[in-house]
């Protein structure tokens, strides 16, 4: 399966969202996903524009369409975003959060997506603590 920056960010948000108490601010960062900061900010902007996520706090200015900052503290994946990910990856929406993340970890590992594999592994570890 091919993926771009936008899909990488959306999959990371979906994965983190499976926790009882998601920590988007610390989990969803350009560095964690292996993305350049401007690419990351534009991906967030596109995802929000398409209605797949909401809650990003953008600061804009200057003479560029690239946001100056994008704060991820309050990000939530929308029902449309959840359906998109679950349809695309054939995830059973009735599964528990832990089951979903285990399935994602397996797929990310199989596909060689290291950054997303790390996000899923970290999420599972944090879920096991609670």
From TrEMBL:
Domain of life assignment: Bacteria
Pfam families associated with the record: YjcQ
Name of this chain's protein: DUF2513 domain-containing protein
UniProt organism field: Formimonas warabiya
